[in-house]
Amino acid sequence: MAKYRIFYWKHIPSSITVEGDGRTIKKQLSQKIQNAIDSYAMAEGLTSANDYSAQYRRSDWIERDGKPEEIAASLLADLEAEFAKIEIPRRNGR
Question: At residue 94, does pLDDT exceed 80?
Fold first, then answer.
């Protein structure tokens, strides 16, 4: 048994942490997702570091059966697939 949590920017996952078997595994989602987060922030006018950073949040810990490495790989694949096409809002004034 292991546990994981997801780090989000608004509703978009940015990274994951998995703990189990005395280990902690941290993984970032792909650069494509990271770029989408930046585009989303720009579209919403969140250009200051404080405004941008204020949008981050962590999920609660969720328990899951399996080894930490397997959970991390599966979770990353699921999140990448789910968020492959992030709809970016139109910029204000367009």
Answer: no
